[in-house]
Amino acid sequence: MKMFTTPTLEASYSTRREETRQTVVYMSEMARDGSPVNLGEQIFLSIFNVVTRMMWGATVEGEERTSLGNELKTLISDISDIEGIQNYSDFFPMFARFDFQGLVKKMKVHVKKLDLLFDRVMESHVKMVGKKSEEEEDFLQYLIRVKDDDEKAPLSLTHVKSLLMDMVLGGVDTSVNASEFAMAEIVSRPEVFKKIRQELDQVVGKDSIVEESHLPKLPYLQAVMKETLRLHPTLPLLVPHRNSETSVVAGYTVPKDSKIFINVWAIHRDPKHWDEPNEFKPERFLENSLDFNGGDFKYLPFGSGRRICAAINMAERLVLFNIASLLHSFDWKAPKGQKFEVEEKFGLVLKLKSPLVAIPVPRLSDPKLYTA
């Protein structure tokens, strides 16, 4: 997919850098009077802005972009909350048509709003097709151009809209939760924070800011990210699959067209494969070659095979760049009378049970390092 290729990601670095710097600037402003910050909220804004700017930022600008962003953020949160509620009809299908919990009704309302919102975006893009060069166009313009230029392309505007919905709903929330879990684990563990800080100071220094080019030189921070996704996979059951034919797995017959869930949360904590599986030990990933590509079935944070997450490279860059910048620029302390906790809230998407709130304390001496 064009949006996730290395050339496209390299070309969009300025967008990621700008949004991350805006987050750092905001944190430094809050630090002036010691105000606590909801880290998850700010990370959401940063990642959401990056993803949507890459998708339709070339034509949706100014107040329209702000309004659109606020509406989308609310809808994503509402839809995610509904998806995380246990639907009793899953256990008693005969009662599904009654919708006793009202979940189907609520979801239809939110999906309708989402559908209308994306219609607005696409209408403006259809009008813009052909007015920008291929180098200037955003991802949505590219998809519409492909649909119009290639008669063999199996794309309709409905397909394009569905693809964008999947990318926003699936890409933003999971990246934000991974970032928030990583920050929660780090700030609650001084020994881990100290090692990351030493690595950042050695690679980046105290007289410069973090750039994406630094990330490959930060093996311990990468190990922390991998360990975070081992303990807290953002999709604990991955994306549901459906088998095309009846199969026998480990002696169990799985009928054709069954809905299949892979419990990676349990796999990642299996003592047969992991030493002290419930402990946060980033060092384990310094001692092996496990990566996010799903080649080893004991570690599948993004799935495996043909259905693996298409946006691994972008997610890795977004998450690492965000947390590296926040950890390099600030010390973090808990608000008075509180302490950092890492407790999970289970659902379709794994989240922190309580928002991560912390007070940023600038640690770099040059004020220019806290400007955009």
Would you give an account of this structure?
- The chain is mainly alpha-helical.
- The chain has one domain (14-370): Orthogonal Bundle (Cytochrome p450).
- The chain has eleven helices and nine strands.
- α4 packs antiparallel against α5 and α5 packs across α7 (157-187).
- The mean pLDDT is 87.
- Its cofactor is heme.
Key features of this structure:
single chain; globular; 49% helix; 9 strands; metal-binding; mainly alpha; heme; 372 residues; Cyt_P450_CS; iron ion binding
The termini sit apart by: 31 Å
Largest β sheet strand count, sense and barrel closure: 3 strands, antiparallel
Under CATH at level 1, the class stands as Mainly Alpha
Outline, from the CA principal axes? globular
- Count the beta strands: 9
InterPro entries: Cyt_P450 (IPR001128), Cyt_P450_CS (IPR017972), Cyt_P450_E_grp-I (IPR002401), Cyt_P450_sf (IPR036396)
Pfam families: p450 (PF00067)
Family: Belongs to the cytochrome P450 family.
Cofactor: heme
Précis, in short:
The chain has helices at residues 6-11, 13-31, 39-56, 62-83, 103-128, 139-149, 157-187, 190-203, 219-231, 264-267, 312-329; strands at 37-38, 241-242, 247-249, 252-254, 259-260, 330-333, 344-345, 351-352, 357-362. With 372 residues, the chain is mostly helical. Strand 7 (344-345) and strand 8 (351-352) form a beta hairpin.
